[in-house]
Amino acid sequence: MTEEKYSIKVVPNENSRIGEVDFNNLAFGKIMSDHMLVADYDDGEWKEVSIVPYTNFNLSPASSALHYGQAIFEGIKAYKFADGRVSIFRPDKNHERFNRSALRLEMPEVPTEIFMDGLKQLVDLDRDWVPEKEGCSLYIRPFMFATEPALGVHPSKSYKFVVITCPVGAYYNKPLRVKVETEYTRAAKGGVGFSKNAGNYALSLYPTRLAQEQGFDQLIWTDAKEHKYIEEAGTANLVFMLNGTLVTPGSDTVLQGVTRYSIMSIAEHWGIPTETRDVTVQELIDGIKAGNVTEAFAAGTAATLTPISEIGHEGEIYTLPAPETREFSNKVLHYLNELRYGKIEDPFGWNFLVG
Ligand code: COI
Predict the structure, then answer these.
(1) Which atom of ligand 1 has the smallest separation from the CA of 234?
(2) Rounded to the nearest whole angstrom, what is the distance from the C-alpha of residue 3 to the centroid of ligand 1?
(3) CA-to-CA dists, residue 310 to 27, 89, 249, angstroms
(4) Most buried of 24, 27, 150, 345 (most Cβ within 10 A)?
(5) Given this model, what pLDDT does residue 53 score?
(6) CA of 141 to the centre of ligand 1 (A)
(7) Whole-prediction pTM value?
(8) Is 312:234 a contact under the CB 8 Å cutoff?
């Protein structure tokens, strides 16, 4: 397969909707930008790749993704610098994770020339959609799903890889009250917890709704076997400052988050000890009671860094220090923002400039 085969055809949108967008009031993921990237896989290879005006799909009702769930996605953000340049934050990491998800779900890998070059061209074309306001960004949603119109359970022979984008503000606009989930399970060892497949999100909806009815915003998932170890929040990873060490659960039932590892890398750069390891619910609760858990937050592309204010476990509520007093969280969020908006040097090489 030659690289020439992946040259991206562009069909410009002659009816831009950008004038209808209120960039001062951006909800998360409601308004899509003018273009999308679409690539079709069939007969063992990626065929035509194109950037076209954002529109609906024409899909067979028998498409296997709709029945057997071969569907994966990613979340990435692009930021606008003060001088107008646009940068995507660490898309190479999302590309790697996307292909790990694809492997586990028996789907084809998406090559760099389609994923990375496609992202770059798409974001460059819709660069006017990248918000300028601090705290806002262009959310990029690459996804792939099985399109073979066949009801037998087997790996689909055809797939669609698509990238859509949308200008966004905060996903969470207040600190979170989270409940430690000890009845339902998100992922088991040997399963698909590490992958970003659509089913991981579908299964979270019912237990999350039950927790929300009890006044919580989100769940802390625990391990499937004993509900003893902390895993992740479903929409984001979890990070704690425990006895002065930044700790994040590291099992393969947890999504390998780009934001949380970026935060861990910054902490290491600052000389703060970090650990990716198993964390028991008991260790967390004992730590909160003893005043040794000084910070707790959710970290993810959409969530960025959202403080956790309260943790519920077996009918008890454990309150964490007030978010505004948390030294590390506030400092690292400020640093991450300065880096992503191009206001400071990027010592890690994480900004991927577009155009
Ligand atoms: C992201 O952080 O990009 C995600 O995919 C999480 C999703 C709940 C919005």
Answers:
(1) 8
(2) 31
(3) 25, 30, 19
(4) 150
(5) 98
(6) 9
(7) 0.96
(8) no
Atom of ligand 1 nearest to the CA of 300: 2
290/81 Cα distance (integer angstroms): 43
CA of 2 to the centre of ligand 1 (A): 34
Which residue among 301, 304, 306 is best mutated to probe the pocket of ligand 1, counting the most ligand atoms within 8 A of its Cβ?
Answer: 301
For the Cβ of 267 lying below 6 angstroms from any atom of ligand 1, the answer is no
CB count in 10 Å sphere of residue 181: 25
Q: Is the CB of 208 under 6 A from ligand 1?
A: no
Residue 302, ligand 1, Cβ within 6 A: yes
- Residues 113 and 3: beta-carbon distance below 8 Å: yes
- Ligand 1 atom with the smallest distance to the CA of 75 is 3
DSSP 282-350: HHHHHHHHTT-EEEEEEEETTTEEEEEEEEEETTEEEEPPPGGG-HHHHHHHHHHHHHHTTSS--TT--
For residues 327-353, give the mean pLDDT: 97
CB 116 within 8 A of CB 95: yes
pLDDT at residue 234 in the model = 87
- H-helix or E-strand containing 250? none
Q: In the prediction, which pLDDT does 4 show?
A: 60
All domains in the chain, ordered by first residue = 3-168 (3.30.470.10), 176-340 (3.20.10.10)
Give the pLDDT confidence of 219-264 residue by residue, as tens digits.
Answer: 999 999 999 999 999 899 999 999 999 999 988 999 999 999 999 9
300 close to ligand 1 (CB < 6 Angstrom): yes
Mutation test residue for ligand 1: of 101, 217, 235, 254, the one with most atoms within 8 Å of CB: 235
Give pLDDT tens digits for 123-180: 999 999 999 998 999 999 999 999 999 999 999 999 999 999 999 999 999 999 999 9
- Rounded-to-integer distance, Cα 214 and Cα 181, Å: 12
Distance separating alpha carbons of residues 308 and 71, to the nearest angstrom: 30
Q: How far is the CA of 218 from the centre of ligand 1 (A)?
A: 13
What's the whole-number mean pLDDT along residues 16-29? Answer: 95
Check pLDDT > 60 for residue 3: no
